[in-house]
Amino acid sequence: MHASPNNRCPAFWALGLAIGLLWTGSVLAQQSEPIKLAPPKSQAPSAAPTALIDASGRRLERKPGYKTGPAGRSLMTINSIGASGIEVDRLQAMTPNSAGILTAETGGLGVDIWRSTPLSTAIKILTELPVRIGSSTLSGLVRRIMLTAADPPKGQSDGEQLAVIRLQRLAAMADYPAALDLLSVMPRQGRGEGLLRAEAELRFLSGDHIAACGLVSAEVLRSQADFWQKAMVFCQILSGDLGKAELGLTLLREVGSNDPEFFALAGAMVADVPYQNADLSQSAPLILAMLLKVKFSVKLATLVDMPPGGLRVVALAENQPIGLRLLAIEQMARLGMFSDTSLGKVYVKTIEKLPQLAAEATGAPLSEPEGRAIERARLFASARRSSIPVAKAEAASQAFKLAASDGNVAGTARLFRAELAQIPVSTEMLWFAADAFRAAVASDEQERGNAWIAMLRRSAAMSDEKDAALETLLTLASILSDDEKIKGDLPVLSLDDVSRTVLIYALRDGLGQRMPPKRWMSLLDQVSSAAAKPMPPAHLWFALKALNASAKEEVVSGMAKPASVAIAAMDTPSSATTLSVQQLVAPTAGTRSDIAGKAARVLLFTWAMGSGEPGAQNPIVLAEVIHGLMTLGLPAEARRLAIEVALGAGF
Predict the structure, then answer these.
(1) Comparing C-alpha atoms, which of 471, 472, 480 is closest to residue 451?
(2) Contact, 232 vs 220, CB < 8 A?
(3) Helix 136-147 crosses helix 176-184 at what angle (to 10 degrees)?
(4) Which of 130, 190, 259, 441 has a 20 to 30 A CA-CA distance from 647?
């Protein structure tokens, strides 16, 4: 029997009442049920140590850097209380939209980050961001924006619409602790259904099923929304009330609920059978939480563009092939997910399964990427067991060579970071200097990177071989360093690989290191693949150009304001994704520097970059985005993005 449109609403209320009554019975009988709901140990309140915010917006434990002493200048201290514990300076008349856990002094971007940005535009840009942000640098900036206590954008609002989207964006990044921290400083009284649902999803995703199901049991009697009914079914499955869960599924079908993925996954959980071919590219939070409780299969090819939430599920799913889990962890490392300590624990725990894999030696043959990931894990285990710096360096060097095959040197460098810190910068390790330098800059350890390349420079005159080793690093060093000598002595790159030449010139141009016209002119008769790479939609591109120009120009009375026109066009759909170079003409009129705050501009940069790997982006877009970060007063982030691009492109 299917409900007609005329009786659907009463049916929903009846469904909510029925499922609520079923839940009451299940709670009373829960102690005798086979599956127990228990809060995870990680959610237990405790006095957390002083935390740090790094360039990617991750919280880190305070550790000595290259030299014993205080943390590097890119780290900022914040105090710890609350859910995972951040002390904040509350804004006056705080609303959910204005609440935040970061101030300008603790890693936030300032109270005026939404200056001159209409609420409708802020929401439009946030909803258009890709689920997976390909750059860890931009992802870190977006994370900091979401956590910053700031005056909200102007516009008609229910007081929590922006707050809900901010929580959803943090959840999309799989940063559930940060999202719960943000939620904890939002006023609890008067929360609407959007915030209540966001909290329930975050509790499910972080493993706090007791809190999640308690919230669901209260809301399911008040709301006819599909989410609460489906969440109640999940709670019943968790508590072992399979009969009631099946009845709930039947009632959902009767009222016309249409969610094939949920029904298939819930059915697999009830029947205790594997869920085949899970699609983790666009999965809702409830689906991701359910996948952690069932055996499932996933295709290797989907890891390349899988969003953070899906990667986390694959990495933590003990029933997945170990090679697949290791590849997911390496992707998490490259995307800047988790703190270094948390990521390291997951990696080490997964590596502990390697002896078991060798003993079983059964099942489907490993793919080449899985085989390389397993070999990198074995090399990491070897480096970890050894106390000899040369042995650690040899293992890391081999791992980096394997990582280059998969385009993830940055992720591997982050996983090896603790072992690399134990390798001294000395002439005895000169053979390892190139790898050590790349690993250091990938991990944003500029002081250590400078020490390695300085040693190479001192040794360059001693032999041709050492000089050649230095030449391979000058491109990277020219981006990283403020030293005019290093920036000025970059040799003319080979025209045999003109696309790489164009890329590095574009990165330097974005950083303000203007290339002489003769360098560009020398490339005019060469063919480059850069011209075929996609561009953002036209209205987005012109918005970027206008906003970047607005940082340096003032409005002349009576002139047009192209930046405001371009921002207004954000609400206009466009299917244009490719432009020719001839179309890339910046607006000529000046614009006011306060036309949009930092938040809108950084989010537009992120939207323009999309979900692809930074090293594969169009150099034209890269130069404009990096230039935009420079004009915003974020030179460290601009340089970090340039390094990320260069490493991803194989420099």
Answers:
(1) 480
(2) yes
(3) 20
(4) 130
